[in-house]
Amino acid sequence: MSARYDACILAGGHARRLGGQDKPGLRVAGRPLIETVAAAVPDAGRLVVVGPHRPGLARGIFVREDPPGAGPIPALRAGLAEVSAPWVALLAADLPFLTAGHVSALLAAARTGAVLVDDGGREQWLVGVWRTAELGEALARYEGRSLHGLLAPLAPVTLHLTGEPWFDCDTPADLRRARSGEPGPPTQV
């Protein structure tokens, strides 16, 4: 499917397991993690970033959840308000191995939505694509706080792709692993 899509990158968390560092700004392979994620969505009509302004993302539309740091559901609400395309790529800001090929594979597989699964078969809710209208309707009805609670009922297609594009940097060990080249450079899909 060659779908028109926007991207919504959630980049406003507290990074507690990283000692409160600016996780999206941490560098892997010479560039900030958030710039790697943005580079994986070159065909997105709009690049919506929920978090503080980033000088390296000139095309970004920056919004904040209220209050800042309130969690993924308020962040998604703030970001989705800026999405105008029929599809949206919902992504974390700390995915060092995500490529445009991975996002294209998600778009090609999606019906209502598609998410990546890790090597253990667990859905990675912040690496997926969704029909904007269905996601908006679900979000309007949802009163919970978890992405799993919001997104799982939408019955997305699940994909396991090579290159561990779902790998995120939540801890110092994750960051060291990404910087060392493990799990290795992503394979083009």
From TrEMBL:
A Pfam family matched in the record: NTP_transf_3
Key words, A-Z: Cytoplasm, GTP-binding, Magnesium, Metal-binding, Molybdenum cofactor biosynthesis, Nucleotide-binding, Transferase
Origin: domain of life: Bacteria
CDD domains: MobA (cd02503)
This protein's record includes keyword Signal: no
Domain MobA-like NTP transferase: 7-151
Alphabetized Gene3D superfamilies for the sequence: Spore Coat Polysaccharide Biosynthesis Protein SpsA, Chain A
Name of the protein described by the UniProt record: Molybdopterin-guanine dinucleotide biosynthesis protein A
Protein species of origin: Streptosporangium brasiliense
